[in-house]
Design goal:
The protein has helices spanning 3-15, 20-29, 39-51, 59-71, and strands spanning 75-77, 91-93. It is mostly helical and 95 residues long. The two termini are 19 Å apart.
């Protein structure tokens, strides 16, 4: 998980009444690792927006997709918009 997305997850969790430190510990317990967001990820995120401006993809969404592209990995999300662009990665929905 990109560090930028970790900030987003912890913020949303806090807004919904979840203790951020407990949430962070839970992510670590599931074996989630964290990587720095790089200039390459930022450029790819911008390219995704230019290619798909009509999709409702936040900066966090696009950074997540950019990291998955960089790592040749898949994405697990609850956001259906993230599955719409064809980016050569697997996007799996969990709800």
């Amino acid at each position: 998980m990109a560090a930028a997305n970790l900030a987003e997850v912890l913020t949303v969790g806090h807004r919904k009444g979840v203790d951020a430190e407990h949430l962070f510990a839970g992510l670590l317990g599931f074996g989630v690792s964290f990587v720095d967001t790089t200039a390459v990820h930022a450029r790819v995120a911008a390219q995704i927006w230019r290619a798909h401006p009509r999709l409702n993809l936040s900066l966090g969404d696009r950074l997540c997709l950019a990291l998955a592209i960089d790592l040749h990995s898949g994405v697990l999300t609850s956001d259906r918009e993230m599955a719409k662009p064809s980016l050569g990665i697997d996007v799996e929905m969990f709800r």
